[in-house]
Amino acid sequence: MFVIITYDVNEKRVGKVCKKLREYLDWTQNSVFEGEITIGKYKKCIAELNKIVNKETDSIYVYQVKNPRNIKKIVHGREKNPFDLFL
To answer: Which residues, at least 6 apart from 9, have a Cβ–Cβ distance to it below 8 Å?
Structure first.
């Protein structure tokens, strides 16, 4: 399935959440990840995120797209290139 995950977490946990999500998905913007993921990997990712976040103050939003052909992505402005992170 295709998912889009956004998060709003305390500064102290941003790095850990970002690092964890990079293991499973593509980083597209600050606090936004997207990509294809199996249900098993998705469940594992969410379980690992739940160990990092504070459920009373942090939030993670998951948008599941069962058929990615039904989604159209339009980028206004410059699209973030994954290689920009290393330059």
So the answer is: 17, 52, 53, 54, 58, 59, 60
The backbone torsions φ and ψ at residue 26, rounded to the nearest 5 degrees and listed phi first, read: -95, 135
Using the Cα atoms of residue 67, residue 68, residue 74 and residue 75 in order, give the sign of their dihedral. Answer: positive
Residues sharing a CB contact under 8 Å with residue 18, sequence separation 6 or more, in sequence order: 27, 31
Dist. CA 10–CA 52, nearest whole Å? 11
Residue 39: both structure tokens together: 């249900």
Q: What is the pLDDT of residues 2-32, one digit of tens each?
A: 999 999 999 999 999 999 999 999 999 899 9
